[in-house]
Amino acid sequence: MAQKKHKEWFDHDLAQLLALKIATVYPEFNRQGFITDIEGGVEQLELKARLSYFSDRFLEYLPDDYPQAIAILVAILGAENSQETGMMSEYYWTLPIATFIEEYGLEHYAESIKAISEVTKRSTGEFAIRPYLKAEPKKTLDIMQQWSLADNFHLRRLASEGARTRLPWATKLTFLIADPHPVLPILENLKDDPIRYVQRSVGNHLNDMLKDNYDLGMNIVRDWLQDASPARRWIIKHALRKQAKDGNLEAIEIRQAL
After folding, report:
1. CA 200, 205, 206, 210 torsion: positive or negative?
2. What is the C-alpha separation between 101 and 62, in angstroms, rounded?
3. Is the distance from CB of 160 to CB of 120 less than 8 angstroms?
4. Of 39, 124, 127, 163, which has the highest C-beta tally within 10 A?
5. Cα 109 off chain centre by
6. Under 8 Å CB-to-CB from 91, ≥6 apart: which residues?
7. 3-state SS assignment for residue 186
8. 71 Cα distance to chain centroid
């Protein structure tokens, strides 16, 4: 049997799974209406549109009160993910919930930020956090700085990944391209993180920064090289891969020395 494409995971079967989970905590939920609606609407859609379609159905079938609706969705999340993997496999079904927060939660900031943190502990809130960063940059970056010190490594990773200026499949964070300094305390907190999942994000974050703010990015790299831990050495090497590939001699020399 041919393996499903990623977009095809968000289909009739997922509608059934979500309907069952929701009805367990919200018995009034119109399971059959939700399932039938999904089945008739997603077939011709690509991945992002499918996620939005699920999100729109949450809006239609859950209570009109957003705090009540998001509380129901958070209640179905189950156990936290203790692994560095699985966000796009075992926990793929949480992505429509993240999309619901991204698309409909901005007017309920506190409830939505809390929900993003809960989704992240299973999967990722890296896309859901973007509208909140744009609408309330200082407030949101302050929270993300707190996440960068959290015991939960998924939250620490989100503190970096969610603020990446050039996050793939997301709109650019132009205000951080114009001035990356507000995010530097987050990166500083994460520069020696012991978890490779977090390290990869920090390296990718620096890689993004080097594309738009090269001098600042390289100054960070040079500073971090002093008494660098093994974790930090890996981050730096990962961050400089694009510069080295493009023939940047300093980047090549640093990577060879690490």
Report:
1. positive
2. 13
3. no
4. 163
5. 17
6. 81, 122, 123
7. helix
8. 20
Beta carbons within 10 angstroms of residue 135's beta carbon: 12
Q: Rounded CA gap, 184 and 111, in Å?
A: 26
Distance CA(1)–CA(57), nearest Å, equals 30
Contact 161, 205 (CB under 8 A): yes
* CA 172 to chain CA mean position, Å: 14
Provide the token pair at 62.
């859950």
Distance CA 109, CA 76 (A): 20
Q: How far apart are CA 10 and CA 162, in angstroms?
A: 23
Would you give per-residue pLDDT tens digits along the chain (258 residues)? 346 677 888 889 999 999 999 999 999 999 999 999 999 899 889 999 999 999 999 999 999 999 999 999 999 999 999 888 646 668 999 999 999 999 999 999 999 999 999 999 999 999 999 999 999 999 999 999 999 999 999 999 999 999 999 999 899 999 999 999 999 999 999 999 999 999 999 999 999 999 999 999 999 999 999 999 999 999 999 999 999 999 999 999 999 999
- Angle, CA of 120, 122 and 208, to the nearest 5°: 45
Nearest alpha carbon to residue 166 among 228, 210, 113, 227: 210
**CA atoms within a 13 Å half-sphere pointing along the CA-CB vector of 235:** 29
